[in-house]
Structures are given as C-alpha cells and as structure tokens.
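Appendix B. Raw example, untouched.
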Amino acid sequence: MSITQKPYHFLIRRVHSLLGLVPIGLFLTFHMILNLSARGGPEMYDKVIGTMRNFPGIIVVELIVIFIPILVHAIYGAWVVYTSQSNVLDYKYARNWFYIIQRISGIYTIIFIITHVYLLRFGEASFAALQHFVSNPYGLIFYALGVLLAIFHFVNGLWAFAITWGIAIGPHSQKVLSYALGIVFVLLSAVGLTDLTAFL
C-alpha cells in the first residue's frame, strides 16, 4: 500500500502544511528582518548574531522550533517530490508551473539551508565570513537564489495552506489570495535582497 493510500496520509499533509507556516515560515520572516541589522555595518550585525547565539537555551529552542520542524517538513517534502507527477507540459496553466517550481524551490532550499547552517553554526558566524562567501560571484548567485526560492516556497506554500485548510475555497477568494501573496512575495524578497546587499 502506497503512502497516498494510508488512512493517516490526510493528517500527514495537514501537519506538513502547518509546519511550513508555523514555525518555519514565521522563522524565515523573523530571520530576514533580523538580518536587516547588517545594514548597520559589521559591528551591529556581529553584536546581534552574538546575542542570539549566547541566548540561554538557544540550542534547545533551535532544535524544537527550527531544526526538527524543518527536518520533518523536508523529509515529507522530498517524498512528495519523489512520488509526484507533473502535467505542466500537458496543461500549461500558471498553477501547474507553480506546482513544479514549488518542488524545485523546495530541493534548492534544503541545499541552501544546509550550506547556510554549516557556514554559520559550524564555521565563523560573522559579517566578515558572509561577506567573504558572497564576494565570490558564484556564492552571491547561490545566496540570492536561495533567498528568492525560499521565499517563493513559503509564499506559494501559504496558497496551498489556505486551500488545504479550507480558508480560500471559491475562485474569487483564491484570486484575491493570489494577488495578496504576490505582494507578500515582493515585500519579503525586497527585505531578503536588502539583507544580502549589505554584505557586498
């Protein structure tokens, strides 16, 4: 029996979509806003990062609020990518393209997060370290794509969340939601890229 036939598959999908919003999506937004401190220069950024790393119980918080939810979300997401069948070549609707881009962005985001965490948690978590990484054109492209695709994955996931949880059911509400999330994508992308340019 495949996983799509399991009686608990419905619950797994609900948990997967919920984790994408809380806590992962909220953390992504918080993380990008926090990184605006880089606009204040190396000293301010390093002070903020140092304060976060020295926060009491930060390891436990990171495990429960960040790493475990991301791991669960990523494992099930990888299974969805492995078992999904795209019909984008048969039906060239925008949502079909979003379907395939959602899966590509998910894979890229996993690679991006692993690299980012390795650099900051197991390397030197400093303004200078990130500046050195993005000073390489390939590093800059890698980070810029990582930021944009992570935001797309989150925002497009919000659309799927609203559908899955019965928040946006009719065509009109889904259309309004699409426009609203388009604005959210632009705003978050502006914040994320503003963070990145601070290191150039």
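End of appendix B.
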